[in-house]
Amino acid sequence: MSVQYGEEQVGYAVAESTFGVAVVPAATDAFRVTSFDITPSFDRPEVPETTNTRSLQERIAGRRSCTFSISMINRPSGTAGTPPDYHLLLKHAFGTYANSGGVSDTYTPLKDPSGLSLSGYRLLEGVMEGFYGGVVTDVTFSWSGDDFATVTFNGEAKDMLWAGVNQTNGSGSSSPSLIVDDGSYYSKYGVIDIDNDGSARQITAISNETLTIASSSWSDADAIEPFLPAPTLAGSGLYGTDGTLSIDGGSSDISSLNGSVTLSTGISLNNRNFGTTTADSVTLPSGRRVTGSLSFLVEDNGNFSSIRGEASEGTTQDIVIDIGTTAGSVCQLDMSRCEFDSSPLSGGAGLIEVTAGFTGLTSSATATEDEITVVYK
After folding, report:
1. What percent helix, strand, coil does the chain show, rounded to 5?
2. For 107, how many CA atoms within 13 A lie in the half-sphere containing its CB?
3. pLDDT recorded at residue 303
């Protein structure tokens, strides 16, 4: 009888100093994930010329790009003043990061995040894949009274990278040109090791079956495998039994069932220039938006009646959500000026529930870049 063991699901993210030049991750760049999906787009447009046939005869290489979606349990580090493992994703979603040693880690919006890009990686059995030239297009924080709190990052990237299992074809001594049996198992910026030696080698170019790497030595038929460092991980996941909700800046707490907050960053990539096949820069085609929703049971305490009236009048509220209650394991979302939207009641003879949407605004009509603050503390 064969037995299939479970696999550790880990992602890595590392900042790029130059847009679109992938950086090899370190052990401390790792974070746990519940899902990590990369969707490539390798465009092959059909040649539109009319010929003496109804058959399609030719396609050519067009543009390349990819998108990614990374979901995880909201997992603070457990130590106040030490950011969570997925710190870099948060920094690239918001743009501005401040550390107060021993106290907190704070993320706030940045007016111009166009200088930020990252490389991402995931490793499964026998295959590694990732992306480079990546930007975060939105991040969503979700929580529920009977489930784990989660964080989901979506984004787009210049291109995809990958590496599989193959072997050397011939030996080499202090050479940057590694010949393998089949070069299609690898892409530019894939990371490999040789003969399971535990050393990361980034592929900087590929020509047929020749991979360009840092100068190395090997024997014929050595195994070439994808490689990422053993992860360094910290923290415990947050469950929905720990947390509080306030709509008056933390002065008092109210009961709720669940909720979510989404920051749409307004960041994208420029993949339209003549003479290019992949994006060559980060662009800001639209404004930033903060939206969310809160769900309640309608009870005799009148919570929803108040919210409906405030939606009608356009009254703003200071929404503060604390996910977690233990120092070092609290994620706080603070939106100092939010407007609720009107929402219908659902239910009838039994429980009545309502979900109220809201939109986050800056702290005043003249303020900027302060519609949301996320603090791990």
Report:
1. 5, 45, 45
2. 23
3. 55
Q: What is the pLDDT of residues 223-241, one digit of tens each?
A: 999 999 999 999 999 999 9
Whether 140 and 261 have beta carbons less than 8 Å apart is answered as yes
120 DSSP 8-state letter: E
The pLDDT value given to residue 2: 55
Bridge partners of 129?
122, 162
Q: Are 209 and 321 members of one domain?
A: no
36, containing H or E segment:
strand 35-42
- Residue 3, token pair as written in the block: 């037995």
Domain enclosing residue 326, as ranges: 243-376
Q: What is the pLDDT of residue 95?
A: 97
Give 278-283 contacts, CB < 8 A, sequence gap 24+: 278/20, 278/63, 278/64, 278/65, 278/133, 278/158, 278/159, 279/20, 279/65, 279/133, 279/158, 280/19, 280/20, 281/19, 281/114, 282/19, 282/113, 282/114, 282/115, 282/116, 282/117, 282/135, 283/114
What is the model's pLDDT at position 156?
98
Asked if 20 and 143 sit in the same domain, the reply is yes
| One-letter amino acid for residue 71 of the chain | S
Check residue 256 and give its pLDDT: 87
Give the mean model confidence (pLDDT) for residues 12-32.
Answer: 97
For strand 331-340 and strand 352-361, is the pairing parallel, antiparallel, or unpaired? antiparallel
Whether the predicted pLDDT of 171 surpasses 60 = yes
Instruction: For residues 127 and 150, give the distance between their C-alpha atoms in angstroms, rounded to a whole number.
Output: 26
Contacts of 177 (CB under 8 A, 6+ apart): 210, 211, 212
Other Cβ atoms within 10 Å of 164 Cβ, number: 18
Unique residue bearing structure tokens 């074809």:
169
Predicted confidence (pLDDT) at residue 301 exceeds the cutoff of 70: no
Phi/psi region, residue 258 (left: phi>0; alpha: psi -120 to 50; beta: rest), is beta
Q: How many domains does the chain have?
A: 2
- 219 and 352 housed in the same domain: no
Helix, strand, or coil (residue 312): helix
In this structure, the answer to whether residues 199 and 268 fall within a common structural domain is: no
CB half-sphere exposure, 176, CA atoms < 13 A: 9
pLDDT band at 17 (very low <50, low <70, confident <90, very high): very high
